Amino acid sequence: MNSITIKFKTLCKGQVDVFLNDHLQTSVSNNSFTTGALAPHKTHFVEFRNTTNQLITVEKLFLDGIDTEYFIYHGFLPNSERGNANNQSVKYYFNIPIWDWFLNWKENDNSTNRMLSKTHQGFIPL
Q1: Calpha distance 26→116 (Å, rounded)
Q2: Minimal CA–CA distance to 69: which of 98, 106, 33, 16?
Q3: What is d(CA 62, CA 38) in angstroms, rounded to the nearest whole number?
Q4: Domain annotation covers residue 104
Q5: Any idea what the CATH number is for the domain that residue 96 is in?
């Protein structure tokens, strides 16, 4: 079991609640908190919720000291879309260990097949 530090920067006019695996994080201080024990090689998620129905935008997300860079634009929104801004919540999935998951995600997100899919340029060979 591993614990990690999650740091973030959000823009929101209302209150932002942070959830880790559906549990409200009450120890958030200076846009940062340390998780409890997280099982390795399992999928976990951090969710930013707005209780006042104001737009919430996630500008930065650091998982265990790693800047997730443009991964912030791949958050899951309640309306089945992807992005980093919504009036209700933005959710990010990740695996432990972070460095292994992030390198794998970054490599696959920039692969030739993935780029073809993103730009809708045609058939992806199997």
Answers
A1: 42
A2: 106
A3: 16
A4: yes
A5: 2.60.60
Per DSSP bridges, beta strands 85-86 and 56-63 are antiparallel
More confident residue, 107 or 89: 89
CA distance 85 to 71: 13
Residue 92 lies in a domain: yes
Global pTM value: 0.83
> Are the beta carbons of 71 and 95 closer than 8 angstroms?
no
Q: Which residue has the tokens 């390198």?
A: 103
- 60 vs 118: CA distance, rounded Å: 23
Number of domain units in the chain = 1
Condensed to tens digits (0 to 9), the pLDDT of residues 20-54 reads: 999 999 989 999 999 988 999 899 999 999 888 88
Residue 102: CA atoms inside 13 Å, Cβ hemisphere, count?
Answer: 16
**Which amino acid would we find at residue 114?**
R
Structure tokens at 73: 């634009």
Domain range for residue 67? Answer: 5-119
Reading the block at residue 82, the tokens are: 């992807």
Rounded mean pLDDT of 114-120?
53
